[in-house]
Write a structure and sequence with these properties.
single chain, 272 residues, 5-stranded parallel beta sheet, 3-stranded parallel beta sheet, globular
């Protein structure tokens, strides 16, 4: 059965959970914790998003590694959320692996991580050879790796075959808000995947999130689009609704595009 058919069959059976590393989630929106004005806004926005998986940039956020400073875990409890430590800011495979190992130590053996190894400070595009290297090392070390990558279908499939539990292609450069620049590549990745595919980076507003879900993506991860909005809490709510609407539209099945009009009511049997 194809991936798309399997997802439609799941919806028909009334269980449309997102499953990552064997755990079920109701929400398909994953959110970050950076760039907010303060911890209270962070908490309020995450609550409004209804996200269950919250990603944390270990190099920028204190979750216990810096005693005496505000601790994110005081407002985002691991009892209520699945924390997803990420390697944002890492430019080598070695640094990314070390960051994940630190997260495992700080979080009592936690193994679910988001891997990103950056290759360029201006675009923040991933360094694919280094990403492949780090993913292989982490998987061999027992980590459940969700991996940030380009929208290259070949690389996405290779990361899946290596054992990554989710593949996360960018829609556009990180923080750009440009939306999905190459929907056909994303669609190709989705159609050939047997692990969850989540758009990561480039979303700017709720319609972008809806488009990602309408393409068949299993979820969307975002931070800047919410935290950088004029009203982050309101945008978090909008993003939640966009993801939900896009998922429902994908499962419902849109009508085909046509060049010409098609009457919505039959003309047979009319009086004139």
């Amino acid at each position: 059965m194809s991936t798309t058919a399997a997802r439609l069959d799941t919806a028909a059976n009334k269980d449309d959970s997102l499953i990552i590393a064997g755990k079920r989630y109701r929400s398909r929106l994953l959110v970050g914790t950076g760039k907010y004005r303060d911890m209270n806004e962070t908490r309020a926005a995450i609550e409004a998003s209804a996200a269950e998986i919250v990603t944390v940039a270990l190099r920028r956020t204190n979750i216990g590694q810096t005693p005496g400073e505000p601790n994110l875990l005081d407002v985002i409890s691991p009892d209520n959320y699945t924390l997803l430590p990420n390697t944002a800011g890492c430019y080598t495979a070695k640094d990314a692996v070390r960051t994940c190992q630190l997260a495992r130590e700080l979080l009592d053996g936690h193994t679910l991580v988001k891997l990103e190894v950056l290759g360029d400070e201006k675009t923040l595009f991933p360094d694919i050879p280094a990403t492949l290297d780090a993913a292989r090392t982490l998987i061999d070390d027992g980590f459940d790796v969700m991996v940030y990558t380009t929208d290259d279908p070949i690389i996405a499939k290779r990361l899946e075959e290596m054992g990554c539990v989710a593949v996360m292609p960018l829609a556009a450069p990180i923080g750009s808000g440009l939306g999905i620049r190459n929907p056909y590549n994303i669609l190709t990745i989705v159609e050939n995947a047997s692990v969850p595919i989540l758009v990561d980076a480039g979303v700017g507003t709720s319609s972008d999130a809806a488009v990602a879900m309408e393409l068949g993506c299993d979820g969307v991860l975002m931070n800047t689009a919410i935290a950088g909005a004029r009203e982050p809490v309101l945008m978090a709510s909008a993003m939640r609704k966009g993801v939900e609407a896009g998922r429902e539209a994908f499962l419902a099945g849109r009508i085909p595009r046509k060049r010409f009009a098609s009457a919505s009511s039959p003309v047979d049997g009319t009086f004139f």
